[in-house]
Amino acid sequence: MSVQNKVQEEVTIRFAGDSGDGMQLTGSLFTNTTALEGNDLRTLPEFPAEIRAPAGTVPGVSSFQLHFGSKEILTPGDKCDVLVVMNAAALKANLSLLGSGGIIIANTSGFDKRNLNLAKYETEVSPLEDDSLADYNVLEVDITKITKESLSDSPLGYKEVERCKNMFVLGLLYWMYNRPLQSTITFLKKKFKDKQGIANANIKVLKEGYHYGETTEVFSSRYTVKEASLKPGTYRNITGTDATVLGLVSAAHQSRLPLFFGSYPITPASDILHGLSKQKHFGVYTFQAEDEIAAVSSAIGAAFGGSLGVTSSSGPGIALKGEAIGLAVMLELPLVILNIQRAGPSTGMPTKTEQADLMQAMYGRNGESPIAIVAPRSPADCFESVFEACRIALEHMIPVMYLSDGYLANGSEPWKFPETKDLPEIEVKFEPARTNNGPENGETDKFLPYVRDKRFVRSWSIPGTGGLEHRVGGLEKEDETGDISYDPDNHEKMVKMREAKRDKIAGFIPLQEIDNGVENGETVIVGWGSTYGSIRTAVHELRQEGMDVSHIHIRYLSPFPRNLEKLLKGYDTVLVPEINNGQLVRLLRSELMIRAKGINKIKGRPFGVEELKKEIKNGIGSSVA
Amino acid sequence: MTIETKISEHLKQKENGNGEEKYSSKDFSSDQDVRWCPGCGDYTILKQVQKTMPKIGVDKEDIVFISGIGCAARFPYYMDTFGMHSIHGRAPAISTGLKVSRPDLSVWIITGDGDSLSIGANHFVQLLRRNVDVNLLLFNNQIYGLTKGQYSPTSPEGSTTKSTPFGSIDHPFNPLSLSMGADGTFVARTMDRDPRHMQQMLQRSHQHKGTSMLEIYQNCIVFNDGAFELFTDRKTRPREAIYLEDGQPLLFGKDNEKGIRLDGLKPEVVSLEDGGYSKEDLWTHDEGDKTKAYLLSQFFDAPAPGETQMPRPFGVLYAVERPCYDEEVSNQIDAAVEQKGQGELDDLLQGPETWEIK
Ligand code: SF4
């Protein structure tokens, strides 16, 4: 039987196994090689919710999905084409994600009686042996056994040998997709620099997997996925978390301020703390506080002292920070709050994604407490979005909430990274020192901390600057002087002033663009945040089918871009897909009087392109209440 | 370029102090009307702080007062320095962020028994264990004043207050023992009615490198008048209070006729008048002795049956040096720069692996 070579435009592979099977590493190595081959791609890892869920059980399954192609790839893929399962639990947990006719590569050692029991398969017969998988193309390989045989002369212990089996899978897939082994070999040599034995064993098994594909006849096809036509330039692969870290360091660099990051560990935001704590040589201060409140408070303290103060969390932690964010609103100090959203309410589903904290960001504090909100739309876009959050905070002396989510944070894509010289400057001016302050030198010259410029922004007057001694606080303050005031007219004036200050930001952000489609069309799909990839792909495909549907994706959620209202009023139908129960849709209705209709999914998972297309078709023409 | 020099670029050049006092206490009073109840102990604390500031030799613009919520928390408004009246209980956390990023500043936390021992108790103990180089003035009046008279975490058991009409059944905190337990490096107590002693203690707080925890017994004339009368009243003070001095024997009484002696680890009050004991037999105060400092902090509760009441100690119970968190953070940054070189943003943006699309 000869092996056929087929060309594919796009492929989705899902690696699934026990937490200890090294599926995340396998996935990311395949990703690196794929990126180096010039494909466009998106990835999404999924980890078990428990740290050490029992081996072999369904809760212990860890998986990594990679979608790559020669065309534009914007989502990690709806259904996968290839599913690698290292044990029975991995099959059970992931089979529903495999497209019909898809390929299953199953490690048969993972389907013995013990594993079937652990995975709670009710039948005695392995799913590999009954005909439950008849709709798929199942390739059974005893990966564990082959790995052991291949390393029979190795001096490594039993466990270390067993741990090499993921390299067999990787080698086999490299053969299937005509990929070179070199970058993985280089990686392994570097990673196990001081453990030659382990490096050699892994490389041996990797090659074994590749040769297995070549010599056995179980596979009838190999596949080629050609280079994508990405914009020319130098690329790297980046996760949303790493892009956020880089964006923060860059914003500090471009504003010439020290970065102070106060945080408390919480899924899925902790990785930002981990990432920034490695950047001490950039002068980054990271402070793991005793709780969420201390984390935000420390950032406010640092901002008072003239640093770029940043705090991070996820929904429940943001709730705890609410009072302190309100303080920053009153102090009119720059503060950046990163909310890496997860499924709520309460503890909810920490490892699952959701966009349900928009209302919390908008209104989730006591009193009238306006802040700015910025949301990234893809892993790489986290860089620019968090940079913008910092810019707005610093230039407008206001707290800014950055609304990312777990899906963006953990996902990755190729990024045409910028050079420092191309980054914009962030304009920061501290109030200069005065020499003759004080009543003895005439009241007129008294420093007034709450005097504003044309944008209604007050000065940043940091301790250590002579003549600027002044007091700020959470109590309502008199206009200009900042002195405590209970005057009714002053309070109303200040409440409106803080809101006007936030609204003025609209003059300093880009106008809303149409991502795809036309102005004044029939239907527009309006999204924000991580739904970008699914919406863009769905709209692209629907337009190819001849539908008049456009896509607008909003990064600046508070204040909205000043042309947004006019733009949206140009369409007959406004549909708003969100991973929540309808939040942006309510804002568009209440703030802009747009007759918008929601498309909502609240399953802790992103929209699939196909389901979204279907929902859009259903939504068009249906009456809007 | 270090962070400090980065910030100091924006600061004016500072003259070096010549040892003379540059300011008078008036220079530290702001233009705001002071609004505590007439007769409140807070007034005298404010006055002593304003008197002490010129003596510590720090430029006005380098001093920051940060408070939480409560009667005492109005304090920063009355000081003509930088100041922040923040939110309930969080002043230690705000101060930590400020001091870590601005080690050049002299940071003073103004807090009360409700602010620091109830809603902000977590931040209070964390501050002490981290030993951030700030000064914390704990105005203890054993009551909630601003909210008009509920019992506080330092109110004695049985206190009848608005929220405890049948008497409080909460066991109170002993702030100094708590501070010792949190590994505080400077633990001291003073009282509003002894201005001279308070000034000394404020200066000592400033001089100490690390978190200085100074508890100040403060009379709330409206809701808890006379809570500390035994210690503040001239008639009872000699027998009820003992002033500590490093290296000196523990003496008290009107004519220093009484002393405290240690029998093993058991303190006892002895008379120096009946010839049984002399000064040499007494416990000599050692600010560096943690065990003894803890024993002193325990001169607090009512005595067990058959034991004598100990006088309440005032002064510095404990003062030792331990690395400060803020300094360690800066050291770590310096070490990282030394080891890896000043970070190059382009290297970071590029990451470990790149590829070219033509
Ligand atoms: S209520 Fe008590 S503590 Fe508060 S200002 Fe009045 S006297 Fe002072």
Q: What is the 3D form of chain B?
A: globular
The rough form of chain A would be described as globular
Helical content band of chain B:
25-40%
Mean pLDDT of chain A: 94
Poorly predicted regions of chain A: none
What does this structure look like?
The complex is a heterodimer of chains A (625) and B (358). Chain A is of the alpha/beta class and 625 residues long. Chain A folds into four domains: 221 residues, Pyruvate-ferredoxin oxidoreductase, PFOR, domain III (Pyruvate-ferredoxin Oxidoreductase, domain 3), CATH 3.40.920.10; 187 residues, Rossmann fold; 81 residues, no CATH class; 104 residues, Rossmann fold. Chain A is built from 20 helices and 22 strands. In chain A, β12, α12 and β13 form a beta-alpha-beta unit. The mean pLDDT of chain A is 94. With 358 residues, chain B is of the alpha/beta class. At the A-B interface, α1, β9, α9, α11 and α12 of A face α1, β1, β2, α3 and α5 of B. β17 of chain A pairs parallel with β2 of chain B, so a sheet runs across the interface. The site of iron/sulfur cluster has 11 residues of chain B, from loops.
Key phrases:
heterodimer; A: 625 residues; alpha/beta; Pyruvate-ferredoxin Oxidoreductase, domain 3; Rossmann fold; 4 domains; 7-stranded mixed β-sheet; 22 strands; 35% helix; B: 358 residues; 2 domains; 8-stranded mixed β-sheet; 12 strands; 29% helix; globular; binds iron/sulfur cluster
In short:
Chain A: Residues 20-210 form the Pyruvate/ketoisovalerate oxidoreductase catalytic domain. Helices cover 35% and strands 20% of the residues of chain A. Chain A has 625 residues and is an alpha/beta fold.
Which SSEs are present, and which pair or pack?
The complex is a heterodimer of chains A (625) and B (358).
Chain A: E1 4-8, E2 10-18, H1 23-36, E3 40-46, E4 61-69, E5 80-85, H2 88-94, E6 98-107, H3 113-118, E7 137-141, H4 143-150, H5 158-162, H6 165-176, H7 182-191, H8 196-215, E8 221-225, E9 233-239, H9 240-255, E10 259-263, H10 270-277, E11 285-288, H11 292-304, E12 308-313, H12 315-331, E13 335-341, H13 358-363, E14 372-374, H14 381-396, E15 399-405, H15 406-410, E16 412-415, E17 471-473, H16 488-504, E18 523-528, H17 532-544, E19 549-554, E20 556-558, H18 564-568, E21 573-578, H19 584-592, E22 596-600, H20 609-619
Parallel strand pairs in A: 1-8, 2-5, 5-6, 6-7, 10-11, 10-12, 12-13, 13-15, 14-15, 18-19, 18-21, 21-22
Antiparallel strand pairs in A: 2-4, 3-4, 9-16, 14-20
Chain B: H1 3-9, H2 41-52, E1 63-67, E2 82-85, H3 91-101, E3 106-112, H4 113-119, H5 121-130, E4 135-140, H6 175-181, E5 186-191, H7 195-207, E6 212-217, H8 229-232, H9 237-240, E7 241-243, E8 251-252, E9 258-263, E10 266-271, H10 290-297, E11 312-319, H11 325-340, H12 345-350, E12 355-357
Parallel strand pairs in B: 1-2, 1-3, 3-4, 4-6, 5-6, 7-11
Antiparallel strand pairs in B: 5-11, 8-9, 9-10
Bound molecules: iron/sulfur cluster.
